[in-house]
Amino acid sequence: MSAMQLAPRTDSDSRRRSRTWALPGAAVLLGVAVALFGTGVVDGNATESGGSGSAPQADPGSTSEMGGHPDHPGHDDHDHDDHAVGDSEAHSEAGHDDHDDESHDDHDHDGHDAAGSPDGHDDHDHDSHDDSDAHDDHDSHDSHDDHDSHDDIVRLTAAEIAEFGVIVETAGSGVIEQTLEVPGEVRPNDDRLAHIVPRYSGIVTDVRVGIGDYVKRGQVLAIIESDESLAPFEVKTLLSGTVIGKHITLGEAASRDRDTFVIADLSTVWIDLTIYQRDLERVRVGQEVVLLRGHEERAEGKISYVTPIVDERTRTATARVVLTNRDEDWRPGMFVTGLIRVESAEVPLAIPTTAVHRVEGRAAVFVETADGFEPQPVVLGRTGRGVVEVLSGIHPGDRFVSEGGFTLKAELEKGSFGHGHAH
């Protein structure tokens, strides 16, 4: 019994081992076929294999023995078949994965290289950026060169400064006087004016003075013969002064109803200023007035009188200044300009108006530096009599050109025209 039982086990085992090695090989080939030729070829091979029936009938006895083996009923066949199928599926999936990976890798990298490669992107961006930078550098360099070549400093020697009359002062505080500019006229002082009339009517036999002559009080001006007087009588002045009126000629019949001479003491004169109705509230007695006659002649006085009524025709009032006129330069009949100081304020920084110039369309002051004179833009405030307030641009203690700045401006424009720039 023992020998008979051992023979079938050995033969069955041998067949099972042969089948076990055969099935995995077929599964591997099947997986390769699926990967290479597609699903249709595999289906065709499977149909032919099923039609021939060779696979299940290769060893009929082995199935019976395996199926009826008392120790391992179909265990080995089940395990090996499952393993073969698993290997086939795994191999197929592996082949599919390899195919996908290769296709994906080729597609991704090739497409990325062709359409949007980092190299192409870098070349484009960096080239453009470099060109832009080069352009900016070029523009900046040109602008910098232009700025350097545009030198706004005027350099003068000490001899040239003296020749051009350049005066330098130190900036500091000042008083800004708000003024009201009004027109005016010089008049004789009516309190020092005499109209000379004869005591009797008669014929003028002698005239001893003329217009403009200076006479002293009691001096004889003319002689008249009259029927009302037993002897010729003298016409005398009542005060010392200048003859400003003469209404008598030799042989003329003089009348006591009409003045023959007008004598004015011109050591003082009246300056009658015209005040418009809108400015009356700002003008009052005691205010200081600067009087201008021509370009340089000037004098100062105070308002002594303001008319209480307004002229019906002109709608103006009169403010009067009594002006001392020792040299008699202020002649009656002259037109003058009056600057009435209506307000006064002290400011931290004020400079003469002659120091301000227009440079490149802006108010500027020439400031003294170590290299020369440089125009410094300034912001101006209130303006007074020949003085202007400076709000910003220069500081107290700065050295600036108060006179002679027009020469510096001309030199600056000359240099600017040479560089093709106009100021």
UniProtKB/TrEMBL annotation:
Residues 192-265 form the CzcB-like barrel-sandwich hybrid domain. Keywords: Cadmium resistance, Membrane, Transmembrane, Transmembrane helix, Transport, Zinc. The keyword Protein biosynthesis does not apply. InterPro entries: Beta-barrel_RND_2, BSH_CzcB-like, CzcB_C, MFP_Cation_Efflux. The keyword Lyase does not apply. GO terms for biological process: copper ion export; plasma membrane copper ion transport; response to cadmium ion. Residues 349-409 form the CzcB-like C-terminal circularly permuted SH3-like domain. Belongs to the membrane fusion protein (MFP) (TC 8.A.1) family. PANTHER family: CATION EFFLUX SYSTEM PROTEIN CUSB, SLR6042 PROTEIN. This is Efflux RND transporter periplasmic adaptor subunit. It comes from Eiseniibacteriota bacterium.
